[in-house]
Amino acid sequence: MAKKSSRDRLSNEINAGSMADIAFLLLIFFLVTTTIDIDKGITVKLPPWSEEEPDPTKLKSRNVFAVLVNANNQLLVRGEQASTEELKDRAKEFIMNPNNTEDLAEKPTKAIISLKNDRGTNYETYITVYNELTAAYNELWDEEAERLVGQPYSDDLPFEVRKKIKSKIPFVLSEAEPTDFGEEK
Amino acid sequence: MSKFKKKRGGAKPTISTASLPDIIFMLLFFFMVVTVMRDATKKVSVVVPEATELNKLEQKSLVNHIYIGRPIDKKEFGTAPRIQLGDKFATEKDIPLFLEKHKLKVAEVEHPKITTSLRVDESVTMGIITDVKTELRKANQLKLNYSARPRPE
Q1: Which of residues 28-57 of B touch A (CB under 8 A)?
Q2: Chain A residue with minimum CA distance to B59
Q3: CATH topology of domain B44-150
Q4: Can you tell me the ipTM of this complex?
Q5: Are A44 and B55 in contact (CB < 8 Å)?
Q6: Interchain contact A120–B (C-beta under 8 A)
Q7: Per-residue pLDDT tens for A86-135?
């Protein structure tokens, strides 16, 4: 009993005064090493590799939205020169074909966007074009989701709804093998 | 007047610093969670292009990065665009091995979720990117992300 009381008298506590200093040290270390880098980008699914050339299936030309970007970063959309600003609206009109025009896609499921570039095309231009085409589809999905459930398209929507939208307006973008113009040496 | 003075003199106004360690620890944990250790020193300069339709890359461990850009050390390596895998220069022929090495670090069930992030400088032309894409397709690595920064409104 006496022994115990003697132990009690010793204040055996760990001195926590330096805790703040240690924490500060660690904090500064992590502050310095942190790079809050934004890992964002345009997600793409590549087609699987096949040795043979893609067979030239007879696609009706009205169902193909051909976009060509040359080595001078100029755009050719369905045979005529165009700018990146109008690309999105033209793509949207082509996919949905609201007025049932003869030379636009029969229906969204049959629409194919074909993108072809030169090896000399600037990456920035390529991304801008790709971005506009993705934006066209994203806006169409938004509109469709708005119509179905009254809110824009997002991954939070129920799976059935998303599946329904995507099967109504599938994202089909085929990229042709680029031509060898303007390759940087 | 004298009434007030008396009162103030009596109380010793000190801010309690007892909760300071807690606050610091909170900050510390925040930064520990947010930190991504940069594993590779950059040898090529990369300024990614701007875009609007961005997706966030979720799980960092399932992402491998391929850098394409012009060498920072121009005197030694010239100005032609080069590929950087990990922390050294490479050619597109090294990509399959690079992908396999990354796969070893990832659980087998998660292999289909692996995404390749292409960090490409905006001034580069498509030729080298096409070669990389072809190599990725051959290696059956089909999930791709063109790294971009948000376009200011």
Answers
A1: 28, 31-32, 34-38, 48-49, 51-57
A2: A39
A3: Nucleotidyltransferase; domain 5 (3.30.420)
A4: 0.74
A5: no
A6: yes
A7: 888 888 888 888 888 878 888 888 888 888 888 888 899 999 999 999 99
Q: How many residues are listed for chain A in this entry?
A: 185
Residues of B in contact with A42 (CB under 8 A): 51, 53-55, 145-146, 148
Judge: B146–A39 Cβ closer than 8 Å, yes or no: no
B121-149 tens-digit pLDDT: 988 888 889 889 989 988 889 899 999 88
**Domain extent listing, chain B:** 44-150
Residue that has been written with the tokens 């999105």 in this structure: A88
Q: What residue in B sits closest to A154 (Cα-Cα)?
A: B55
